[in-house]
Design brief:
By secondary structure, this protein is mainly alpha-helical. The protein has seven helices and four strands. 49% of the residues lie in helices and 10% in strands. A two-stranded parallel sheet has the order 1-2. A two-stranded parallel ribbon has the order 3-4. The longest helix is centred in the middle third of the chain and has 20 residues.
């Protein structure tokens, strides 16, 4: 979890590849209305997120029920978002990709073709409720160092 541009997709995909798990990018689950709002520079409201979070919860649940391990790259900015995502699901760890506004702004400014524009980054930081129960990773670390840190923490 983390704000847009923190590296959730890159890291999540790498972890899923390493362990042969199923990777899901929460961006792929947004309804068209949400994508249109964000592309227009309008931050999503909590009511906008409810069906999106429900679809993500269903995906996590069905993946676990099938005996697979899901890796989800999702902003999950607020405590209530994380609670909705994980309701009734056990054994899922939250990794919080934490970084400075300046670093993330520079990354977002360099990427092309994403509907989430750098101008909306401040709204993500404004909405962010840092989790108390997550494993925190500094996004200034190189990706391989982040993967190694996760491996040592969860798979010693």
């Amino acid at each position: 979890m983390g704000v847009s541009g923190s590296g959730k997709t890159t890291l999540g995909f790498a972890i899923a590849q390493k362990y042969g798990w199923d990777f899901f990018d929460a961006d792929d689950f947004h309804p068209p209305e949400n994508i249109a709002k964000m592309a227009a520079g309008i931050p999503l409201s909590d009511p906008d997120r409810i069906p999106w979070l429900a679809a993500l919860h269903d995906q996590l649940s069905s993946t676990l029920e099938s005996g697979r391990h899901p890796v989800l790259a999702c902003s999950a900015l607020k405590d209530k978002h994380r609670a909705q995502l994980l309701a009734g699901l056990d054994g899922i760890a939250i990794l919080y990709l934490k970084g400075s506004y300046e670093l993330i702004w520079s990354r977002m400014s360099a990427r092309r073709g994403h509907y989430m524009k750098p101008d909306m980054l401040q709204s993500q930081f404004n909405a962010l409720e840092e989790p108390d129960d997550a494993f925190v990773l500094d996004i200034a670390m190189p990706p391989q160092e982040m993967i190694d840190t996760i491996t040592k923490k969860f798979f010693p």
